[in-house]
Specification:
213 residues, mainly alpha, 58% helix, flat
Length: 213
Amino acid sequence: MVAVQKLPPSPVRDEPAVRVWRFVREPFEADTWRRVAYALLAFPLGVVCVPLALTGAPAGRWQRGLVRRFLDGPEPSGSSRGPAHVGSGSSRGPAHVGSGSSRGPAHVGSGSSEGPADGMSGSSRGLAHAVLAAPLNLLVLAVTVYGWSLVPMNLGWPLRAGSDYADAWGGPTFAGAWAFHAIVGGIGFLLLMPWLGRVMAAVQLRLAAALLS
């Protein structure tokens, strides 16, 4: 008889620890900063595309390119683009907000071969997206700039603090006020903004998929 050696049981993953680690590392993921870049660029590009689309310029192609570059990742050479995905990780699945969503994939067309036959429709789609997405993109831009600016402002609170800490949050001592600003306003927003950016980018992607596809 051949003796069968039992393999040791695989260690059980500590799911709460994995979730905490994923939450903590999100500010340092490349996808997070791609979403920040899109939040900063989407509104000014849309403003520029409005008059250019009226002249027949391929504004839709430019906006689709921005979406693919920052919300769908770089397109590998020689491969077909799958459904757009907002999130982190190497696999590009359907775009969704949160887990367990039953929505279909949000796909933004490539628009790389926009010729004379569909140039006008591409310009019309680009104009529609530039105009209709402007309020959302402006809101996302304002929230992104304000939220991320709070991180260095609160971590470096002593640089802008006066000499009286009695009325400061965490006061009346200097150490207490700095600790409160650094932990709540600095580290707190550092951990919050990437996840808020996920939600805002998912909404922007859905709108782009509806108007630019």
